[in-house]
From TrEMBL:
Keywords, alphabetical: Glycosyltransferase, Transferase
UniProt name for this protein: D-inositol-3-phosphate glycosyltransferase
InterPro entries hit by this protein: Glyco_trans_1
Residue span(s) of domain Glycosyl transferase family: 189-339
Organism annotation: Methylobacterium trifolii
Superkingdom of origin: Bacteria
Length: 391
């Protein structure tokens, strides 16, 4: 029986967490008899869906490179690193295959170098500056096979040809039937922004773009911003204050994170992802397509690989309040111009981002990694050929 370990840095159910759950389901489907350990840093909403497919959920400390904790990691956190690497090494040694979700799980990437041929790292982020340099170095050091979730992510990391890598778009288990479009301009447009509240997601830019609309247009938008800040209640309060100051509180709902956003997607006419920094792909935009909802996104990172401008949604320059505001006015006042977008969005989801398409890509990399490991075992255990007789 194969033993597979899947490691994830989170415990919530945001986009990267849901992508991890789908990867574990893919691994279970590919290896139904395998023993699958899932390693998490703590228990949280992610545990319940994982319990359906994992053999065991293990909670233990992970050495995770988070922006908010870099100073601590670089000082007192370094003392814990040798123990974390040793713990990761024991798990890798006991496993036929180790799937590491994202590059920030540093202890497993460091340990992977010592037991080559067993690990796959799935890259879901586009860091910048020194962080990118560090994470690129970690991947190369690990010797792991690599799955990138977009061409943008692959280009950002720019791995040398010696690294075994492939691009596999995140697959989404979408609804059986998409929404039936109903917006015709006679009621307010239902605009949804879903995701973690942070400086890179662009909630403040969206609020400002709506504030700048003519009052007659602004009154025709019903906005829902759904999400929470990661251990940062001050940011959540600041966003709420900004909505009030912009005069949008009567038409804006600010709601905390929800485990299952299906009802939100059923409500929405348009989903917006106004990110200010490169998204490695953009799960919310893919989920919007799955429901047949056009997406209004920033033209940055992997988002441009999801949304086709003026066909399945709209692409605007990141950080441009003016462009975002102008496009919102077009959407609200001329619904006939985008009548065909919902059907085109669903068709693109089915062709490119369905769960089956992604599952095959992940499974192919797992098979390649296991095949390489088995070849290595055979080489290590095969007897040396005898020297030819000289007569």
């Amino acid at each position: 029986m194969k033993r597979i370990t899947c490691v994830h840095q989170g415990y919530e159910l945001y986009g990267s967490d849901r992508s991890f759950c789908e990867s574990v389901r893919t691994i279970r489907a590919a290896y139904p008899q395998a023993w699958i350990d899932v390693v998490l840093p703590r228990r949280g909403p992610i545990v319940e869906p994982l319990e359906r497919v994992a053999s065991r959920i293990v909670v233990e400390p992970l050495w995770i490179l988070r922006r908010r904790g870099l100073v601590r990691l670089a000082t007192i956190g370094l003392a814990a690193l040798p123990f974390a690497v040793a713990r990761a090494l024991r798990r890798i040694r006991a496993s036929d295959l180790v799937y590491v979700n994202t590059t920030v799980v540093a202890d497993y990437l460091l340990a992977a170098r010592l037991l080559p041929g067993r690990s796959v790292v799935h890259v879901h982020e586009i860091p910048e500056g020194a962080t990118l340099t560090v994470l690129r170095g970690l991947i190369q050091w690990s010797g792991a096979n690599v799955v990138f979730n977009s061409r943008a992510t692959q280009a950002a990391f720019a791995m040398p040809p010696s690294v075994t890598a492939r691009v596999v778009y995140n697959g989404i288990e979408g609804p059986a039937q998409p929404n039936v479009p109903t917006y015709d301009g006679t009621r307010p447009l239902r605009l949804l922004m879903l995701g973690r509240i942070s400086r890179i997601k662009g909630q403040e830019v969206l609020v400002e773009a709506i504030r700048r609309l003519p009052e007659a247009v602004r009154a025709r938008i019903e906005l829902r911003i759904v999400g929470s800040a990661f251990e940062d209640p001050d940011r959540e309060r600041a966003l709420a204050d900004l909505i009030v100051a912009a005069g949008l509180s009567a038409r804006t709902t600010l709601a905390p994170f929800v485990d299952d956003p299906a009802a939100l997607y059923r409500w929405a006419d348009v989903v917006t992802v106004p990110s200010q920094r490169p998204e490695s792909l953009g799960r919310v935009a893919i989920e919007a397509l799955a429901y047949g909802i056009p997406a209004l996104v920033s033209g940055i990172g992997g988002l441009t690989e999801i949304v086709e401008d003026r066909r399945t949604g709209w692409v605007v320059p990141p950080g441009s309040v003016e462009a975002l505001s102008r496009t919102l006015e077009e959407i609200v006042t001329d619904p006939g111009a985008w009548r065909a977008y919902p059907a085109a969005a669903r068709a693109r989801y089915e062709a490119v981002f369905s769960a089956d398409t992604a599952a095959e890509g992940i499974a192919a990399m797992l098979r390649l990694t296991l095949a390489g490991r088995q070849d290595g075992i055979r080489r290590e255990t095969s007897p040396e050929p005898e020297s030819p007789s000289l007569g």
